From TrEMBL:
The lineage of its organism: Bacteria, Pseudomonadati, Pseudomonadota, Alphaproteobacteria, Hyphomicrobiales. This is Branched-chain amino acid ABC transporter permease. It comes from Roseibium limicola. Keywords: Cell membrane, Membrane, Transmembrane, Transmembrane helix. GO terms for cellular component: plasma membrane. GO terms for molecular function: branched-chain amino acid transmembrane transporter activity. It is a multi-pass membrane protein. It is found in: Cell membrane. InterPro entries: ABC_transp_permease, LivM-like. The keyword Metal-binding does not apply. The chain crosses the membrane at residues 12-35, 42-69, 89-109, 116-137, 181-200, 227-247, 267-289, 333-358.
Length: 377
């Protein structure tokens, strides 16, 4: 039996989560995941998945078009750099507002339907956005080349614009690359987690769960679910837009590929892998997928030969050949096998496994305590 969440417990979870995020360069070092670029992706896509989970996890509305907001946030952030300067704060703020408005437009239409029809509508809007960015709105998006900051851009509030300063995002004189860039992204991840936690525990979150539980019954009581679903759709889109802005803050380049359906599918996998409707699950799922993408994809035949060098020469060749199918360009195969195992054995994702282990430990401790305190016959 799980205990009900309390303010004290939520505070403890938040403090532990914030400490874990801020110390990631330390405890991820043993598995080779402590370099800044990968840490930035952990934080950015963890934020993206957290926002998506607010929609899918609480209401059950499965969006296949969230990459559209990721792309809108990216383009808005780069235009913020081009027009205002290389300060990341205005760029992030502009991305949040723009993606929120874009999400309101898409949500206003898409939420007239539910189930698979809603999913198909969001996918259609995302593909339309991708094609607009790739070929139609080239004066704004620069098409297939991608949008980037140029020395000739106005950057009206950037004092280094006239002196040919570096075209990197800078806050208080600190370039948002490397570990400073990670901690900037980590700050937003922690704040995003706090907001999501508050939404989960709020009456608003309760209404969203009611939508997921039985929307028809909610309609019969006289409550209109559309304002609630539209509000969370906009909030989720703002999370995605902020994640897109952070991608450009750490690397000032926006491309249409971020709006493809594969990017939307990736955040769905992250959420399901970690645990739909949980606070920590989508962040764990995002971390696992990005780790596989960046670590396992870098393995090649020479690295595998070094790893299995302890084997006899007769076995080393076949083992390297078989292992090579699951790493390098075949890392998706490893991810697919992992995803199948999780879905079959743990339908609730990784967090279900964590919950089972916790229950087993508590159950074992309780039985041991009862045995020790039992009166002697």
């Amino acid at each position: 039996m799980t205990s009900n969440p309390t303010p004290t417990r939520d505070l403890a979870v938040f403090v532990i989560f914030a400490a874990a995020v801020l110390t990631m360069p330390i405890w991820l070092a043993p598995i080779g995941a402590a370099y800044p670029d990968l840490l930035q992706k952990f934080a950015i896509y963890g934020l993206f998945a957290t926002g998506f989970n607010l929609l899918f996890g609480l209401t059950g509305y499965l969006s296949f078009g969230h990459a559209a907001f990721l792309g809108v946030g990216s383009y808005t952030a780069v235009w913020g750099f081009k027009l205002l300067g290389m300060n990341p704060v205005p760029a992030a703020a502009m991305a949040i507002v723009t993606s929120g408005l874009f999400a309101w437009l898409i949500g206003y239409v898409s939420l007239r339907r539910s189930g698979i029809y809603f999913s198909i509508l969001t996918l259609a809007f995302a593909q339309m956005s991708y094609n607009l960015a790739y070929s139609v709105l080239t004066p704004i998006t620069n098409g297939e080349t991608g949008l980037r900051v140029l020395q000739s851009d106005p950057r009206i509030f950037d004092t280094a614009a006239q002196s040919g300063g570096p075209l990197v995002s800078t806050l208080f004189g600190i370039e948002m690359s490397g570990y400073p860039g990670f901690y900037f992204c980590a700050t937003f991840l922690i704040l995003g987690f706090l907001v999501a936690q508050r939404i989960f525990r709020s009456p608003f979150g309760t209404m969203l769960r009611a939508v997921k539980s039985n929307q028809n019954r909610m309609n019969y009581t006289g409550l209109n679910p559309r304002p609630y679903t539209l509000a969370v759709f906009v909030i989720s889109g703002m999370y995605a837009g902020l994640a897109g802005a952070l991608l450009c803050i750490t690397d000032p380049l926006a491309g249409a590929e971020r709006m493809q359906w594969t990017a939307s599918g990736e955040v769905v996998l992250m959420t399901i892998l970690g645990g739909v409707g949980t606070l920590l699950g989508p962040i764990l799922g995002a971390g696992i997928i990005k780790y596989f993408e960046n670590i396992f994809s870098a393995f090649n035949e020479h690295i595998l030969q070094d790893i299995f060098s302890f084997l006899p020469e007769a076995l080393q060749g076949p083992v390297v050949s078989i292992s090579g199918l699951f790493v390098g360009e075949g890392w998706h195969l490893t991810l697919g096998v992992l995803f199948m195992i999780i879905v079959i054995l743990l339908p609730g994702g990784i967090m279900e496994g964590v919950g089972r282990i916790t229950s087993m430990v508590k159950g074992g401790s309780r039985k041991k305590h009862q045995h020790q305190t039992a009166p002697a016959e």
